[in-house]
Design a protein that fits this description.
This protein is α+β, with helices and mostly antiparallel strands and 539 residues long. It is built from 11 helices and 30 strands.
């Protein structure tokens, strides 16, 4: 579930990681023949922190002008009060809010090797309400060739969102280069292992480590949205239960910056030991509570929580209950994978949520009798470093399992006994059936990273000088699937091949060369006489 893109330029590899809760970037300057040494940007210097990622949050002023990103955005917004805070536009963890929304985002990233100087999102309509709320009037305009970010997110992170949108922006600012998406790599014995990546979402992959260290994907990436953000949500719901919906809503409205500070403090608690926790009660929340009754009375009827001289003390048993939904969802997803007959020897935990002792202990308790549970010392860094390694050498993932059935729309001679009457059309060459779904690769089919499949077709008119190829994907059972306009079939891109030399009429051979095994699907259309055109889009 994160927007990851690797940019390869000469001897430099830059990786941008756009996660639900945290974002960052890594890079390598070593020569191609030298051993790679990924380096990470450190964040939080101005706020006395030093971390490999920064919170995915962004702040705009009342005129929707970019102010700051990450820790600096948080710090600035936390300091605001009253009307000043309500007049600001503050996003945090907004990527998850884009699920099921059809919008088109343009990312402009101006960056150097030392720091990202700006991160600006422009939408055809404003995305956020002042005070942090998400507006609902989202733009439905998008380029049909470049699938919109939200549609990629709707397919969930395991379909690797992002490269096309980012390529568009980087060519605009003169940074065009080959773009790939990362995989997390592991140093294990040559046996299948499951990789659990987690932060705002849970992403599960299954790979076999081959001789030489390359990975073979055994099961298409899967997961759910029950990551660390689910735990944060439970904490917030409990605070609302303590202070009442009315008081909390008023507090959230009058002091949004202070409320966000409190929620950030809570999000950090997920990494603490399995013990009681103390949450500092923000000043204005305490003052508003005292206006209604003695603050201790808010805690009298609730179990697992007490007032502790300016702090809200929550028992470790209550804290564990906030993790329950997330842990149960993770357990269910992992068990579904294990039931499929893979001999999995390792479960590797990576991502920000993996720093939680409660999560690590739960996975160990549930699965240590079947697998060895591993977690690197710096799980937040593992994904970005692995992505840089992958950007240097895409062959590290030798093969993948196709997450979808891909097809191209073709026209065939109309047959009344087979085809729908409404798909019939006539040209100078006779009667045709339009929009036939021609399968290129099937869901769960293994595809090599550098394997190119070739397909041949011919024009449908003798004097046809331009040929359009439209590509589609689906997750539905394709038995009985015939047309591209049936339910569950999604258009993902199209290309137009110019074919100006028509002397051979309909006998001209048009070739499609398609690579499915990389993080992007690459299509090359070739006119046997003159033309050639290429299209890359996310796989």
């Amino acid at each position: 579930n994160s927007l990851n893109s690797t940019f390869v330029s000469l001897n430099k590899i830059n990786l941008f990681y756009f996660g639900t809760a945290y974002s960052g970037y890594a890079f390598s300057l070593t020569k191609r023949e030298a051993e790679i040494d990924p380096r990470l940007k450190s964040w939080g210097k101005k706020t006395s922190l030093r971390t490999p990622k920064t919170p995915t949050c962004i702040l705009f002023d009342e005129h929707e002008k970019f102010l700051s990103f990450g820790y600096e955005a948080q710090s600035a917004y936390f300091r605001t009060r009253g009307d000043e805070a309500r007049n600001k536009f503050f996003f945090e963890c907004f990527k998850m809010s884009l699920y099921d929304k059809v919008i088109f985002l343009t990312f402009l990233c101006f960056y150097g090797l030392k720091e990202i100087e700006a991160f600006y999102i422009h939408c055809e309509r404003p995305l956020l309400n002042r005070g942090g709320g998400l507006r609902h009037q989202l733009s439905a305009s998008y380029n049909p060739v470049l699938t919109s970010l939200s549609r990629r997110l709707n397919a969930q992170s395991h379909s690797q969102p992002g490269p096309s949108d980012l390529r568009k922006s980087h060519y605009r600012v003169g940074l065009g280069s080959t773009i790939s998406s990362p995989e997390t790599l592991a140093d294990c014995d040559p046996h299948p292992f499951s990789c659990l990546g987690s932060c705002g979402t849970i992403d599960i992959t299954v790979h076999e480590v081959l001789e030489g260290g390359a990975l073979k994907e055994l099961h298409k990436a899967s997961g759910n949205d029950l990551g660390g953000q689910t735990v944060d949500k439970k904490f917030k719901e409990f605070l609302r239960e303590i202070f009442s919906d009315r008081l909390w809503d008023e507090y959230e409205k009058k002091h949004p910056g202070e409320m966000q500070k409190m929620m950030y403090d809570i999000s950090v608690l997920k990494e603490n030991d399995d013990d009681d926790v103390d949450i500092s009660c923000q000043y204005n929340l305490g003052e508003m509570a005292k206006e209604q009754q003695k603050i201790e009375k808010f805690f009298e009827s609730l179990r697992g929580v007490s007032w502790n001289e300016g702090s809200i003390k929550i028992s470790k048993e209550k804290v564990r209950s906030f993790f329950a939904e997330s842990l149960n969802g993770i357990t269910k997803s992992l068990r579904e994978i294990l039931k499929k007959g893979f001999t999995i020897k390792y479960i590797l935990l990576v991502g920000g949520y993996s720093q939680s002792l409660i999560l690590r202990q739960h996975i160990t308790n549930q699965f240590s009798d079947q697998c060895k549970v591993l977690c690197p010392s710096h799980p937040q860094e593992a994904i970005m470093k692995g992505a840089v390694m992958f950007g240097r050498n895409p062959a590290l993932v030798a093969s993948r399992i196709s997450a979808f059935t891909y097809g191209v729309s073709l026209s065939l001679r109309f047959d009344a006994s087979k085809h729908r009457a409404d798909k019939r059309y006539t040209n100078k060459e006779g009667e045709w059936c339009d929009g036939i779904f021609c399968v290129l690769v099937k869901e769960n089919e293994e595809v090599g990273w550098d394997k190119t499949s070739e397909y041949s077709c011919t024009p449908i008119e003798r004097d046809q000088t331009a040929i359009t190829f439209a590509f589609y994907r689906t997750e539905r059972n394709i038995q009985g699937l015939m047309y591209v306009d049936e339910w569950g079939v999604e258009k993902i891109g199209s290309i137009i091949l110019e074919s100006p030399v028509t002397a051979r009429g309909m006998n001209r051979e048009i070739k499609l060369q398609i690579k499915f095994g990389a993080t992007e699907m690459t299509v090359t259309a070739i006119d046997g006489i003159i033309g050639i055109i290429m299209l890359n889009y996310e796989n």
